[in-house]
Specification:
heterodimer; A: 737 residues; mainly alpha; 3 strands; elongated; B: 431 residues; 10 helices
Chain lengths: 737, 431
């Protein structure tokens, strides 16, 4: 509390400056233009996922930081920034000849004066969000830019599955809203364009303002320098430590939750089986029919509420998405040839039915080496849909013609869009198909985490970032016939062993990609085993699991990603500090030299030796050193300024983040507890009803054969309930104490 | 129960004992079952080891205590007895009862070793939990016998409860084993029955159905227990993470720690829940075993019917033989008789008379036998149907109670869950 007060006192005077938003906006525009013009090169790099957003040149840096100083006073007052509300929903699939992708509807409602209208509606695709985030990172290297949802589902959900899209839409909504709530980032010009511009406007703006090729070296330098740092302020060292530990804890929680969900799903399956047995029993009893039926009912109610516990989202939502999905996008998929590629069945394509595809330009891909592909049209493919392709079908490619690619031309690929993929989210993808690939010449490609995978397929996967995958679905897969699957992924699945897979936890896989497969051109393949899978209740279960994700694990996930973002910013801060320290060292050295020079005798210097006048030499040197000192001092001042700004920004952002985190975590856990309470309440009600219906239907009790309960013969349900209650309360009390 | 007709199969071929007096007194007082005047408990299992012929034999004995509760029945002493019995003696008693009262549905004994187990259930024969569940089941067995209007009057049963020494000898003295039908015979009977009785066929099917259903229930329950256990125990992991996490937080330390505590409580709570649920499983298992008892009644009926059909058959064949002899001259066709006739010439009339007479005697004997068999069967059917009726009533009542208890258990579990999660929520709210 005392901290807060102090902070308030400090920031009060600043707030006056930023009250007028219009003015501030005006102030910012020129800056943005500078950035835009400056980075006008290299169009092709638009899609890249480069994680280290680079630093900007010193000039723009110092100007933006001064702005940031002005704005950082904002941080304490959250309420003021809640004047933009953004929803992201309604995913829609678009299929082109080369490329198919999904756009989301973004609706902005705002009261801010700088927007002409109070409401905007635009459609953007995932890559546009990526672009936005990248721009934000470039513009505010010292601020924590909220994380984006990962490019790929960890559980290998198909990119076009409604479940995946729903979760992604939610995560994207969270992302843009976090930006909108940020006191600095929400005034960003790119952000406004992203929210309001028409498609063509937006595209041209994007083209105009992209390019970061020149910054790679800069960021690399930053990376290196962070290790040379002599002294880190304890404040930031603490943040670093905290973030590391926090990320680890969250990852632990996530893992536990996933395991619980898995057990719960199994339990749910048991309940589904357990209920009908009572009904079956009632067929052979005449006196107990109603009792047995009420047992069934209670079990069914509990299983339903267990499902709800896992997915508290209303089912109708799912249904709605399902409807959309099945009605529109997939039809298009099957109609246009390329969809088949992107949807996943590429493996089949390459093995046999490629003919259809080969009518379109992709035939070259499978039939002949990938080089052509990578050089021209595939870039687009690989940038977006190829990820999924590579998740499964690339294996086949690699089994035959890709070898050449991997040996040499793949490098080019990786240097362009593919490298980003492989650097971050591709790991998961490559976990499955790459194993086989790497046994062949792909090893060189998979120099990073894939090598381990290749040596013995699944065990090592878990050691690398694939842990999540292997912990949940992949382990089982590998124990079951997944070996065959991975060898050439989809063909075998569809041919036969998928049955077993679906019976085992591989359902997750089949739930997502297979459904589409069966609905899309894969039908032929899936004519026998896959159909059953997609229609079977297992799919529902899997959907349940995914639904839990967006209520508990998705927010967790966001914070895990957040830790990465903060780490990046911390690294950048280190870099700035390092640069400052370096300059300071340099300056001190020069100063020392200068002082030395004053008292030194230049008689034995090189110049003097060459016959020059010692005094003149001394003077020259002194002048030179003076000049250097002067330059270095200015530079140091700039850097000092920069470093201070950086610290302030980061501190403010961390404070905001801590506050948000606190609130979100509280909300998250309370919601989880609430869900559990609701689940138990539903069950409680169901079982109470059961007791009533068992006891309520009276029948003549003539026999008192069951001896030890003779006394209880005429007890009624109320007494029973009371008994249960009283023993229960005692027990709970003793348990809890 | 309106069943106070004289015991159909009560054997009275062994000397009267002092215990009989109390039973007689009770009977005179109009008590229809033993539990109205006696209390029976199986308390306190004990592990014993005997060494005979250098072979160590470890077994459990159970203390059986009885106490006469009705003062009118009490004759001498304080009316209490207590003695030790081991499982094999229970088995002997049950075998005796089963053979002596073939028409009755004999209550089952607990299972010999644990079935339908899940990961955390003890499977060891001497595990305290297993022994305790067996003790409870043995008590139920004795109570069920004592509550039965016929079995409770059995001298051997009463002896089992009250007479420690030489009880085994009295059992063997009844030579009950000689009455046992061989397995082969019953198997034979079930295959060769000409017109199986509808009622018993239905009963047989019913027992199969009930066994199938209960076995399924138990199987799924074991799996459920496993998964429930997993769900709860996994929540325990939160405690560790929450504790570690609370160490790095400045503000939410306490709430996190106490929330972790509740997660641990949640993890622990499953132990008692599943322990209680085991009782439900045991009760279902009893009815699973009752299915076997029902089948045993059916088997015995089949044996009787087989005997009866054989007797009938014999009689019919004798009749036809006689017929043939009476109309001997006109008999045609190739038979042993005609062959004989052809070889040795026709029987003299005297001889034929003799034969007919002989046959008539046989027929008479057979008729008596058949009558006996019929009577026996009728008696059996009456008794069996009466007892099955009793069993069905008992079952309906029991199962309702079992289900009610299960529901109560679930309610308890739910309440516990609500309590824990509400407390946890309060903790989170303080964050």
């Amino acid at each position: 509390m005392s901290d807060d007060l102090q902070e308030d006192g400090q920031t009060e005077p600043r707030r006056g400056k930023v009250m007028n938003k219009g003015e501030k906006q005006k102030f910012k525009d020129p800056l943005m233009n500078i950035v835009g013009e400056e980075t006008d090169d290299a169009d092709g790099e638009l899609e890249s996922l480069d994680l280290d957003a680079s630093c900007k040149s010193d000039a723009s840096m110092s100007r933006s930081s001064s702005l940031n100083v002005n704005l950082s006073g904002y941080d304490d007052n959250d309420a003021e920034t809640h004047d933009m509300s953004i929803t992201v929903d309604d995913p829609e699939k678009h299929s082109g000849t080369m490329d198919s992708y999904v756009t989301f509807r973004i609706t902005l409602k705002t009261t801010r004066t700088e927007f002409v209208c109070p409401e905007y509606e635009v459609r953007r695709r995932y890559n546009d969000f990526l672009w936005l985030r990248q721009k934000l990172e470039e513009t505010y290297p010292t601020h924590v830019v909220p994380p984006m949802p990962e490019k790929h589902s960890l559980r290998r959900l198909d990119r076009f599955s409604p479940e995946f899209l729903r979760i992604r839409a939610l995560a994207l909504q969270k992302f843009v809203n976090r930006v909108a709530d940020h006191p600095v980032q929400s005034f960003d010009k790119n952000f406004h364009i992203f929210l309001t511009a028409k498609a063509w406007e937006f595209q041209s703006h994007k083209k105009q303002s992209t390019g970061l090729l020149g910054r790679v070296s800069d960021s690399l330098y930053n990376m290196g320098s962070s290790y040379m740092l002599k002294y880190r302020k304890p404040e930031f060292a603490a943040i670093q430590d905290y973030i590391l530990a926090f990320g680890e804890k969250l990852a632990n929680i996530e893992r536990i939750t996933q395991r619980i969900v898995k057990e719960q799903t199994d339990f749910h399956t048991d309940l589904l089986e357990w209920g009908p047995i009572y009904t079956l029993w009632s067929n052979s009893e005449d006196q107990l029919v109603s009792s047995l039926h009420s047992m069934t009912k209670a079990v069914e109610t509990s299983s339903a509420s267990l499902k709800e516990l896992q997915s508290s989202s209303p089912d109708c939502e799912n249904v709605q998405y399902n409807g959309q999905q099945s009605s529109s996008p997939d039809c298009e998929t099957s109609s246009s040839p390329d969809c088949k590629i992107s949807s996943s069945p590429d493996c089949e394509i390459s093995s046999s039915p490629d003919c259809e595809i080969s009518s379109s330009p992709d035939c070259e891909i499978s039939s002949s080496p990938d080089c052509e592909i990578s050089s021209s049209p595939d870039c687009e493919i690989s940038s977006s849909p190829n990820c999924e392709i590579s998740s499964s079908p690339d294996c086949e490619i690699s089994s035959s013609p890709d070898c050449e690619i991997s040996s040499s031309p793949d490098c080019e690929i990786s240097s362009s869009p593919d490298c980003e993929i492989s650097s971050s989210p591709d790991c998961e993808i490559s976990s499955s198909p790459d194993c086989e690939i790497s046994s062949s010449p792909d090893c060189e490609i998979s120099s990073s985490p894939d090598c381990e995978i290749s040596s013995s397929p699944d065990g090592e996967i878990s050691s690398s970032p694939d842990c999540e995958i292997s912990s949940s679905p992949d382990c089982e897969i590998s124990s079951s016939p997944d070996c065959e699957i991975s060898s050439s992924p989809d063909c075998e699945i569809s041919s036969s062993p998928d049955c077993e897979i679906s019976s085992s936890p591989d359902c997750e896989i089949s739930s997502s990609p297979d459904c589409e497969i069966s609905s899309s051109p894969d039908c032929e393949i899936s004519s026998s085993p896959d159909c059953e899978i997609s229609s079977s209740p297992d799919c529902e279960n899997v959907q349940t699991i995914d639904a839990t994700e967006d209520h508990f694990n998705q927010p967790l996930r966001e914070y895990i990603l957040y830790t990465e973002c903060i780490k990046t910013v911390l690294r950048r801060r280190d870099a700035i500090q390092a640069q400052y320290e370096q300059t300071l060292d340099e300056l001190n050295k020069r100063k020392e030299e200068r002082d030395q020079l004053k008292i030194s005798d230049q008689t034995y210097s090189l110049g003097a030796f060459l016959g020059k006048d010692p005094d003149e030499v001394k003077q020259n040197k002194q002048d030179k050193l003076e000049q250097q000192v002067k330059e270095l001092t200015t530079q140091m001042e700039v850097l000092n300024d920069k470093s201070a700004v950086c610290d302030t920004d980061l501190r403010a952002d961390m404070e905001r983040w801590q506050k948000n985190k606190h609130r979100d975590m509280k909300e998250l856990f309370m919601e989880a507890a609430d869900r559990n309470v609701r689940y138990y309440e539903t069950c409680l009600k169901a079982w109470e009803d059961t007791i009533h219906s068992i006891q309520g239907k009276d029948f003549p009790v003539t026999a008192c054969d069951k001896p030890e309960r003779e006394d209880d013969k005429d007890k009624d349900d109320d007494i029973l309930l009371e008994k249960a209650e009283s023993t229960e309360t005692d027990k709970t009390a003793s348990d809890l104490s | 129960m309106a069943d106070d007709s004289p015991p159909t199969y009560s054997p009275d071929h062994f000397p009267s004992s002092p215990e009989e007096d109390t039973v007689e007194v009770a009977k005179k007082l109009g008590k229809t079952n033993m539990l109205q005047w006696m209390e029976i408990r199986v308390s306190e299992p004990e592990k014993r080891t005997t060494t005979s012929m250098k072979m160590q034999d470890t077994f459990m004995v159970y203390l059986i205590e009885t106490r006469i509760t009705d003062n009118d029945v009490k004759c001498k002493g304080d009316g209490t007895t207590s003695l030790w019995r081991r499982y094999s003696e229970f088995e002997l008693l049950r075998n005796y009862l089963e053979i002596t009262y073939p028409a009755l549905v004999i209550p089952p004994l607990p299972e010999k070793k644990a079935t339908y187990t899940w990961q955390n259930m003890a499977t060891d024969k001497f595990d305290a939990e297993f022994i305790e569940r067996r003790r409870a089941a043995l008590e139920i067995f004795l109570l069920r016998c004592a509550a039965h209007p016929i079995m409770c009057l059995d001298k051997i049963f009463i002896g089992f409860l009250q007479k420690e020494e030489a009880w085994k000898d009295t059992v063997y003295a009844t030579e009950f084993q000689s009455k046992a039908d061989s397995k082969l015979k019953s198997l034979n009977a079930s295959f060769r029955l000409k017109k199986p009785d509808q009622q018993f066929e239905e009963l047989k099917n019913y027992s199969n159905e009930i066994q199938g259903v209960i076995a399924n229930l138990l199987k799924v329950r074991a799996r459920m227990a496993d998964h429930q256990f997993g769900v709860h125990k996994l929540h325990g992991n939160y405690q560790r993470v929450f504790n570690e996490w609370s160490a790095i937080e400045r503000e939410m330390t306490d709430p996190l720690q106490s929330a972790g505590h509740y997660m641990n409580v949640y993890a622990q709570s499953i132990d008692t829940i599943l322990e209680e649920e085991e009782q439900y499983a045991d009760q279902l298992k009893e009815y699973l075993a009752f299915g076997e008892s029902l089948r045993s009644v059916c088997r015995k009926y089949e044996c009787l019917q087989y005997d009866q059909e054989r007797a009938e058959e014999g009689l019919t064949s004798k009749h036809s033989q006689k017929e043939a002899l009476v109309q001997g001259k006109t008999s045609t066709g190739f038979s042993l008789g005609s062959l004989k006739k052809a070889m040795f010439g026709a029987d003299t009339p005297e001889q034929r008379e003799l034969k007919i007479k002989h046959l008539e005697e046989q027929i008479k004997v057979n008729e008596v036998e058949l009558k006996q068999a019929n009577e026996e069967m009728q008696k059996f059917v009456d008794a069996a149907l009466r007892d099955i009726d009793r069993f069905k009533r008992q079952k309906t009542k029991d199962l309702k109670e079992i289900f009610t208890n299960y529901a109560i258990m679930q309610i308890k579990q739910c309440k516990k869950g609500i309590a824990i999660w509400t407390s946890a929520k309060d903790c989170f709210a303080k964050m």
